[in-house]
Amino acid sequence: AGEPCGGQLDASEAGYITTPGYPLEYPPHQDCRWVITAPEPSQRIVLNFNPHFELEKLDCRYDFIEIRDGNSDAADLLGRHCSNIAPPAIISSGPVLHIRFVSDYAHQGAGFSLRYEIYKTGKESPSLIVTQS
Averaged over 121-126, what is the pLDDT? Predict the structure, then answer.
């Protein structure tokens, strides 16, 4: 049912995830899963949402995007979002994020678009710096 969507993504290059057809209405009966993985175990991933965000509102029961801090449905929930307010930036605690998008049979909206990339802290890991003596 619905459009093909989801997949395994590599965060070594920044990229985008959108609902099928964004910014047109997303199709009904979607259940999409994306897993984003950073190349290094010490790296984290940041998601930034486009402000044009629109998912059916009803308590996020029917249409929602869910972000988990790991590689499966069982990982810690970082957020479950719907309505027309885009979530703030989301940062993983480790190198993997799991994103799920679900829509029911009725009331579609524009959906979401997000950009994923490796989260840059102010300094890179000091273990990578070789000092000359």
Answer: 59
Tokens standing for residue 112:
């979401």
Instruction: Provide the number of structural domains found in the chain.
Output: 1
Q: Which residues span the domain enclosing 65?
A: 7-119
Provide DSSP, 84-110. Answer: TSPPPPEE-SSSEEEEEEE--SS----
Examine residue 71 and state whether it is found in any structural domain, yes or no. Answer: yes
State the pLDDT at residue 56. Answer: 92
The mean pLDDT of 30-48, rounded to a whole number, is 97
What does the pLDDT average to over 107-114? 94
CB contact set of 92 (below 8 Å; sequence gap of 6+): 44, 45, 46, 69, 78, 119
Closest of 129, 110, 120 to residue 52, by C-alpha:
110
Query: Would 125 be classed as within a structural domain?
Result: no
User: What is this structure's pTM?
Assistant: 0.87
What is residue 118's predicted lDDT score, i.e. its pLDDT? 98
Which residue has tokens 């810690």? 76
